[in-house]
Every structure is written in C-alpha cells, then in structure tokens.
Design goal:
heterodimer; A: alpha/beta; 4-stranded parallel sheet; B: 255 residues; globular
C-alpha cells in the first residue's frame, strides 16, 4: 500500500488547506419538504419507503448501519468488492444547488455543478461517516476531487483505468486495476473474503439488477404506472441502501405498479432520456417534462439505467475470473462519456428506442459538464440519419430558464405529433 | 369562411393577426407590458378594429409566444416554433423551408418539410446572446436604435471583429472599441456579424437544400440579413411583415 493512496496532498501542504475542517456548517437541506411534492405525485404505497429513505439517507449517507462505509463517485467502482470486504458502498454524487454554492468555497464557480455540489456535501459535513472515499479516473472534475477532498476525508483511493473501452485491448489492465483495489480494501478493512464471499456479493447485486430490469422494462411500456420522479428516486436510493434491502423493497414497487395497470392512451408520445445524470433534488428537467405531459419512458443515464442495468456474468469461478467479469459489468458497457466508447451509448439508445417504440430522444446537458456536451454533434448526426427526433437541452440547477425549456419541450412534443 | 385570431405574446412585443380564410384581415402590435393578459386583450381589440370585426366573429383564438398561457381567453396554445413554421410554410406557398427567427429573447432555426411538419429546430441558450435584445442593448450603448445601428453597419467597409454575443461582455467590448476610436460604422457592422456567425452555425446543422426564410423582429434589419447571407454563404428571403409571421402562423393553424 502506498502513501499516495491515503491522501493525494502531502501533510505539509494539507496544513494550509483547512477550509473543510475549520468552517463547520449546518447540514443545509431538509429534503423532506422537497420530497413532499413527489410523494404526493406518486400514488404508490410501496414508494413511501423510498421517498423517506432517500430524503433521510442523503442527509448522512451510511449512518447507523454498523458497517464500515465506503463512499464513491461514479459508476465504474465495483460495489461487489466493497460488499465482499464487509463494508457498505454508498455513491455520493450530489446535485443540490445549495450544496453547489457551499462547494464554491473550495472550487471556482465555473465548474460542473455536480462536482461543486459533491464538494459542498463534504463542506457541510454530510459525509462524515465515510471511512474511505473511492474516486474513479472518469471526468477531470472527479479526478481533481481526489486532491480537493483530501483535507475532508480520512482516506482516498483513486481507481485509475484506461479510457478506451476496447475490451480486447484493455481487459487485462482493468482486471489489474480491480485486483489492486480489492487488495487495498482487504488490507484496509482487515477482511479475508473468500471466493464464495465474492460470488455472494455478485449474487446480491445481480438480484438487484433482475428487479431493476423488470421495473425498467415494465415502465418503458407503461410509463404511467411509475412516474419519472419515482423511477429516479428508486434508482438513486440504490446508491445509498444495502443492495438486499433495495431489492426487497423495489420488488414491492414492481408488484404494485405492475398491478395498477395504467395503460397509456394510444396516441401518447414516449421519449428516451439520455445525457448528464439526473439526481434528486435537482429534478428540474423531470418537473418540466411532467408539466408538459411528456412521458420519459426510459433512460440511458448513469444515475439510473447505467447504475443498475448490467449484471455480473461469471463464466470462470476463480477470483481472477470474477474480477474479470466485474470489469465487463462496469467498464466495457459503460455509457459514461469519459470513456472513448460512444458506440455503446448509440447502440443502447437505438436499441431501446426500437424495442419500446419510443418517439424521440431528449439529450440533457448539464451546463459545464463538458464530457456530455462535447459528443452532442455526433449524437445529433447519427440520430438524424436514423430518423429519430432529438431535442438537446442545456441547463443548470437554476430556475430562470424554465420558460425557455418548456417552450423547447412543448415544441418538440408538437413536432412528434 | 372561418375567421381565426393568432396572438403572439413575445418577450418584447405582442402581435395579433386575424385571418379570414387564408387572407390577413387585420393585425396589430403593442409592447409587451407587465400585465400580459391586458396586453393580449388590447392587441386583439386593435386587430379587430383594423379588420372591422367584433369578437363574436372570431371562430378560434390561438395564442403563442413566451406568454402564451397568460391569455386565458385563447382556445388553444401552441409554441412559437410550430407557429413560425406554420406562418413561414403558408407564406412560401406551402413549400419546404428553413426558417430563421430572430426574436426579442430567442433566436431559432426551424426545419420544415414539404408537408409543413417541423422536422427539427435549434434555439439559442437561455441568455440574450445573439437575439433582438442583444441588438437593443448594443444600440443603446451606441446612442441609437436598432434601425440606426443597422444603417450605420450598412455604411461600414472594414467591420471590426467582435467575439462576444454575450450582452454583458459585448457591451464592455464595444465600450473599449469606442475608447480606441474605432469608427462607429465598423463597430455596428461587427455587432451584426457576431450574431450572424452564431446563426450561420445553427443553419449549418440542417439540410442545405431548403430555401432560407427570415422572420421575427430581427428580420427588419437589412444589415442583419446581409450579414447572415455573407457568413452563411446563402441567399435569404425576408418574409413580408416579418414580425407578424408567428402570429399569422398561429391564426393559420386554427383555420
């Protein structure tokens, strides 16, 4: 284990960076009142658990679980390795305008709002339960957080990986990176997980994926059965809940929504959402879609589909085989624009649109989240060629462009008729 | 013959067109005030007066534009994008086209197929970059109005290069150009060119075969039309009464 993996800024310099510890702030949000709106829009008894859980857990991820807590950012962190070592993985991506404001004391204003908000969470001491923070080498903002957050957390691990998703070329390198990460976790938590423990962890997340897929597929055909708010709340809850608990409660949601039988009117239009992640409480885009009567029946986003859709498929039950299989779950199919692998994103979008008879695609760019925006023209041209209508929206957490966004979405809906 | 009123409640002006069959029977324009509802009512009354009609003769009122939902009397709302498409399509004799609409707070390019359907559209971001409002602010800095700015620009031989279409930054750019005693004609031309290059990028996203039409308040500026033509290397047709095209389209959609 190297020192670099504990902190990315040397002790000498850390002494000058006291901003996280000196200014203790109030935990800002009472998410309960913001959740109330979505609670009322829901109409599903089984969703109540998720409304409460997300509003509660966001205030203090991993609290009262009696397990070591490993916080991480982005998808490509293999949760199974953390679970096998007896810790709880929690994904800390954050999208709260108030936290973003607080984050501006540690990072400049013209930075991705999600990076700022994640930073602000640490500033507000929301993540004080975290024993280890795992930062993936995805976008520049996230990588830099490894340094910026050094004064704020006990320990940081940077999971480095090549950005080319050509699996033939990189599978060995990825597997090596995961192996080193696994060794690190074992050392850190003094855990001795067996091959079977690892297999069990994979079974647990696969069960979660199985339920998620049922919900995803049902919703894509019957979007009225589970509204977008509930769908994203459900997905985001999986960032913070132990997987077994999520699976059990989400199973009840599937049961309830699939028995509700809300059938779409024949002429209603369904769209696919892609682009920057949508996270509670920043449901601005979802709010506007709902108000304009636009049904986002499916998504290809890392905050929902990308987090839960792919299973671990083990064909060789050695430890090495499982680690390899994990890279094929997390990296090879990644839709994250940080990787060079837009083919995967395009294939997924085109297949989903065709499979569920969707009428168009809305691509959401979070302002200053450059990796998503930079590939817009490629996406636009491919979808145009395939005759699939596309609407590109660019916005941030603020509300002043609500009118203009509504006009765009309404015009897009008029165009689909 | 069905009579319909289209009301386009824009961010700067509110327009009304009354259409009888497919002919314009009356139209009017007022400045959009704080009370949008009142504005819409008065613009409708004025148009009715010009048409020599009263409310009872109107079959349907369709409202569009930024304030489309504020007018409670309307029977139907549609977005200004669909309305601009309907208006442009009607005026061009029902042919496919690409419509540039430079309004007060939005600049859009709309692709319309031979059947009059909107195929795709692009719009500027939330700020006033490259819109009528931008020109208004710049005209004020130059102590003139948009038409004055347009005439100045037409007289320029060596336009300066202005990089910003952000009203805030462009203003300081213009102020420093004035201070460095650049000719005001050249500054004016530079301002139109900066919008034109934005619009040209939007145009290039679409099929290059469809005829280009120009509407919205911005289309009243000859300097802007010529700047776009030059930058995009395309011929542009300014639609008759360009400020009323969206209101006309809304009315046509009801007929």
């Amino acid at each position: 284990m190297t020192m670099e993996n504990k902190k990315f800024i040397s002790k000498e310099y850390l002494a000058s960076l006291k901003y996280f510890s000196e200014k203790r702030r109030e935990v800002p949000a009472d998410y309960g009142s913001e959740m109330e709106k979505y609670r009322q829009a829901s109409g599903l008894e089984s969703m109540k658990f998720f409304h409460d859980t997300l509003a509660g857990e966001l205030k203090s991820p991993g609290e009262n679980r009696n397990l070591p807590v490993v916080g991480y950012l982005c998808n490509p962190i293999p949760e199974e390795l953390i679970i096998a070592c007896g810790a709880l993985p929690v994904r800390l991506c954050s999208a709260d305008s108030r936290c973003a404001e607080a984050g501006e004391e540690a990072v400049p204003g013209d930075i991705c709002p999600m990076v700022k908000s994640t930073c602000g969470d640490f500033y507000n001491h929301i993540n004080d339960n975290i024993d280890l923070l795992v930062v993936p080498a995805t976008c520049d903002g996230k990588v830099k957080l490894a340094e910026i957050l050094s004064p704020a957390v006990k320990e940081i691990y940077l999971l480095d990986m090549p950005r080319n998703t050509d699996y033939m070329k990189n599978i060995e390198v990825w597997t090596d990176a995961y192996t080193r990460f696994y060794e690190y976790l074992r050392d850190k938590f003094r855990a001795r997980p067996t091959r079977n423990d690892l297999m069990d962890a994979c079974r647990i997340t696969n069960e979660r994926t199985r339920i998620f897929r049922k919900i995803y597929e049902y919703r894509a055909r019957h979007p009225l059965a589970l509204n977008s708010f509930d769908y994203f709340i459900l997905s985001q809850s999986s960032f913070l809940l132990p997987p077994e608990e999520w699976t059990e409660k989400a199973g009840a949601v599937y049961k309830e929504c699939s028995s509700r039988g809300k059938i779409m009117p024949g002429d209603a239009k369904k769209i696919l959402l892609a682009g920057s992640p949508i996270l509670f409480p920043n449901f601005k885009i979802l709010d506007i879609l709902e108000e304009t009567g636009c049904h986002a029946a499916a998504d290809v986003m890392c905050s929902a589909y990308g987090h839960l859709y792919d299973p671990v498929e083990i064909d060789e039950e050695t430890e090495y085989g499982i680690l390899r299989a994990l890279t094929l779950k997390y990296i090879a199919p990644s839709i994250c624009p940080c990787f060079v692998g837009i083919n995967k994103l395009m294939n997924t979008i085109l297949d989903t649109v065709q499979e569920y008879g969707l009428n168009g695609v809305i691509y959401y760019n979070l302002r200053l989240c450059q990796v998503f925006e930079i590939q817009t023209t490629i996406l636009r041209n491919i979808l145009k060629e395939k005759g699939i209508p596309l609407l590109v929206l660019k916005t941030d957490f603020s509300k002043e462009d609500t009118g203009q966004l509504k006009t765009r979405i309404e015009a897009f809906m008029e165009m689909l008729v | 013959m069905r009579i319909c009123a289209g009301i386009d409640i824009g961010s700067v002006t509110t327009k009304c067109v009354i259409v009888k069959g497919s002919e314009i029977a009356g139209k009017s324009l007022v400045k959009t005030g704080i009370d949008t509802e009142k504005c819409a009512r008065s613009v409708l009354e004025k148009a009715l007066e010009e048409a020599g009609m009263n409310m009872s003769g109107i079959g349907q009122i369709i409202s569009t534009g930024y304030g489309r939902r504020a007018f409670k009397k309307s029977d139907r709302v549609m977005t200004e994008i669909s309305a601009a498409a309907a208006g442009g399509y009607h005026l061009t004799g029902r042919r496919e086209c690409l419509i540039i609409d430079v309004g007060g707070q939005d600049t859009k390019v709309i692709e319309v197929d031979a059947a009059g359907n909107v195929l795709d559209f692009l719009m500027n971001d939330k700020c006033a970059a490259g819109t009528g409002r931008f020109l208004e602010i710049m005209a004020t800095v130059m102590e003139t109005d948009i038409q004055g700015l347009s005439s100045l620009a037409m007289a320029s031989r060596t336009p300066v290069r202005i990089n910003s279409t952000c009203s805030v930054f462009a203003e300081s750019e213009v102020v420093s150009l004035i201070a460095s005693s650049a000719a005001k004609e050249d500054i004016a031309a530079g301002l139109f060119n900066s919008i034109a290059s934005r619009v040209a990028i939007m145009i290039r996203h679409f099929s290059q075969n469809r005829p280009l039409l120009f509407c919205g308040g911005g289309a009243k500026s000859m300097a802007l039309k010529e700047a776009i033509e030059k930058t995009a290397e395309r011929q542009i047709t300014v639609l008759p009464e360009p400020q009323f095209v969206v209101a006309l389209g809304a009315a046509i959609a009801g007929c």
